């Protein structure tokens, strides 16, 4: 935790297991999203060609990676998936995290797979229906800056069953709970 008197170190070179390490936008209109977020947050964009007609945007703050965005493919669009943000949690092993998620009553929506030389990931679903991604870093640790305007500062889960969610995240990521306004709240320190 950082006190109000202490400013966090803005540059990140590694993420502790269980911490948020990446945030990614899946959008139906990538160019409009680029215009909106660069204007709103002052982000610059590093465009990475990932294949025919596929560009991955790395949004940056002060020249360091802060988030990403991509245009959803035809398969996602045909399913009616809306534009959305996704959070990634740092893990030492995506395979181990997926196994722990299943053992804790969750589902593996996308089994662990390699993302080029950058890392290994999986998409998990907690028992209350929320999806979360895990990231095992290789050449890309994810977010490289925090504590500055336009960087990730909070991750929050709204769920119909807080107790089931608490059990799941504690079991899979070793998160702790802290009471807040009379009810337990998960705490993942960033």
Q: What structural keywords apply?
A:
single chain, 190 residues, alpha+beta, 2,3-Dihydroxybiphenyl 1,2-Dioxygenase, domain 1, eight-stranded mixed β-sheet, two-stranded antiparallel sheet, 4 helices, 10 strands, 38% strand, globular
Say how many strands there are: 10
Alpha-carbon distance between the termini?
7 Å
Which CATH class applies here? Alpha Beta
CATH architecture, please? Roll
**Please, how many helices?**
4
What does this structure look like?
By secondary structure, the chain is an alpha+beta fold. The chain is built from four helices and ten strands. Strands 2-3-4-1-5-8-7-6 form an eight-stranded mixed beta sheet, covered by helices on one side. The chain has a two-stranded antiparallel ribbon with strand order 9-10. The protein is globular. The N terminus is likely disordered.
């Amino acid at each position: 935790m950082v006190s109000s008197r202490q400013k966090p170190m803005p540059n990140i070179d590694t993420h502790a297991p269980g911490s948020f390490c990446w945030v990614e936008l899946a959008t139906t209109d990538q160019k409009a999203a680029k215009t909106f977020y660069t204007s709103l947050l002052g982000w610059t964009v590093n465009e990475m060609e990932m294949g025919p007609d596929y560009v991955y945007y790395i949004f940056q703050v002060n020249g360091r990676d802060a988030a990403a965005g991509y245009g959803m493919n035809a398969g996602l669009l045909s399913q009616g998936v809306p534009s959305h943000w996704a959070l990634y949690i740092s893990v030492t092993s995506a395979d181990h995290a997926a196994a722990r998620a299943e053992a804790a009553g969750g589902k593996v929506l996308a089994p662990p797979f390699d993302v080029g030389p950058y890392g290994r990931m999986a998409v998990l679903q907690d028992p209350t229906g929320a999806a979360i991604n895990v990231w095992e870093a290789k050449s890309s640790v994810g977010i490289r800056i925090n504590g500055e305007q336009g960087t990730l500062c909070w991750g929050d889960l709204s769920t119909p069953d807080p107790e089931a969610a608490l059990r799941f995240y504690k079991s899979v990521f070793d998160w702790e709970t802290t009471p807040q306004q009379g009810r337990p709240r998960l705490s993942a320190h960033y």
